[in-house]
Amino acid sequence: MTAKRDGCVLCETSGGRLVFEAPQFRVIHAEEAGFPAFYRVIWQSHAAEFSDLSSAERAVCMEAVAIVEQCLRAHVSPAKINLAALGNMVAHLHWHVIARFDWDTRFPAPVWATAQRDRDAGREAGVAAALPAAEAAMIAALSKRTS
Amino acid sequence: MTAKRDGCVLCETSGGRLVFEAPQFRVIHAEEAGFPAFYRVIWQSHAAEFSDLSSAERAVCMEAVAIVEQCLRAHVSPAKINLAALGNMVAHLHWHVIARFDWDTRFPAPVWATAQRDRDAGREAGVAAALPAAEAAMIAALSKRTS
Question: The whole model's pTM is what?
């Protein structure tokens, strides 16, 4: 079920702290400085582009993205959720699911833009403190979906 | 079917050159300097977040995104497709579908990062010349889906 490609970092490593794993996808927490609630939904098989998946696989993938998004909305109350599948550096399908806050270093610009303010360690810690509950909700909802 | 919000630019304007319109979404070509094959799939009703849509609506939305992606892959042979729903500035669900090339001003960084090389007018024109055929393919595939 999971076709691997030699030399692909997302075929050979988890890509971050594993939160949930299903046969077709996994959810990881990414360590991205200044963005405490940054998750990725990574397709298990090596696929470069979203349209390399079948329609049914795309639905599985995006329902996982939606669940991660919903749990972040419920538990960390972001100003906005940002979703992206870029893959210019690592062409193995992974969806960034990022909770954005009006006090984060780039808001309202994308996280890949130049910083426009300093980090707020106190607020970042507040978000981080809510992640265990957010992740418990993700695991519960994703388990129900994939069982 | 299409709930509008006063003052929302994507409720009140097309948001770009209209390529295709269905009851639930529209596809536009965006004028973004240096990125000739930059499209957006815009949800017709005002919804801020992807997870504000129902599961069935998300499937409709993402199959439209996949069709735009497939037609760009077939007609402009990009190095990579980039997909993103950010909405920090305009919180009305819209998916960026961007054909990226190894010669574009930001590659392999996201289009929102700092430019790392000059524009290549000749290559941009070559991509632009392929867009009518790409858009005809989008219209044909999207019409079949939504008829």
Answer: 0.97
